[in-house]
Specification:
single chain, alpha+beta, Death Domain, Fas, 2 domains, two-stranded antiparallel sheet, 8 strands, about 15% strand, repeat, apoptosis, Death_dom
């Protein structure tokens, strides 16, 4: 099955199967089961590219050699320290403002399924429509990750086993596991319902809008929460 993050390299014939590879910007090691293509890494500002990312290997980076003098290094360190302090104070103030705003609007953001109807989505291409929407869940607030996946009845040890992965890869791995576990019963409506139950209506609406705009799903009707 061709996944949404793969492309066909060689078509199927009577002597050989279809050959697929990850789309540009993503990769999968040949010795791994390529159920999900990983995003290519980017080198940091103090690094340079040794080897560009390909469909089968990640980007390789190395530290740039410094040609600056000790005096220049001292000045640079002082400037960077000052910039860091200013950015840190700005970040603390910004977090406080956001927290205060969220606290004041908590009541208005709360959602009760029995009060506000939510649309039912119909996939246009079966499970491929569902897996194509995984990327939309990357916007899910990290504070809700564990609660969201527990709401999907994913075991705690399975959730913890993906803690070492990046934010995006962790989302994709656990959603793919959930789809495999649910089989034909897996539905985007179930995922959105889990978000609604966690009072994440705004996130659910954003994912729904993206799924419809991308052409993966279409609206069937409004219901009171029963999929």
């Amino acid at each position: 099955m061709l996944l949404s993050d793969q492309e066909i390299v060689r078509g199927c014939s009577h002597t050989q199967d279809t050959l697929c590879q990850c789309k540009p910007g993503k990769y999968c090691h040949p010795d791994e089961a390529c159920e999900i293509c990983k995003k290519c890494s980017r080198c940091n500002s103090d690094e340079e590219v040794v080897k560009n990312c390909t469909s089968t290997s990640n980007t390789e980076c190395k530290k740039r050699q410094s040609n600056s003098s000790p005096e220049a290094d001292t000045t640079l360190t002082a400037v960077l320290t000052l910039v860091f302090v200013v950015l840190f104070l700005g970040l603390v103030i910004l977090i406080f403002i956001i927290w205060k705003k969220k606290w004041k609007t908590a009541d208005s953001n709360s959602f009760k399924p029995e009060e506000v109807p939510f649309p039912t989505l119909i996939p246009k291409n079966g499970v491929e429509s569902l897996t194509a929407c995984f990327e939309f869940f990357e916007e899910l607030n990290v504070d809700f990750h564990n609660r969201f996946f527990r709401k999907l009845s994913i075991e705690d040890n399975k959730i913890r086993s993906k803690d070492h992965h990046s934010h995006e890869d962790r989302i994709h791995y656990l959603l793919a596991y959930w789809v495999e576990k649910k089989g034909k019963e897996a539905s985007l409506n179930d995922l959105l319902r889990a978000l609604l139950d966690l009072n994440q209506r705004r996130t659910a609406e954003t994912i729904m809008d993206n799924a419809v705009k991308k052409g993966y799903y279409e609206l069937e009707s409004f219901s009171l929460g029963d999929d």
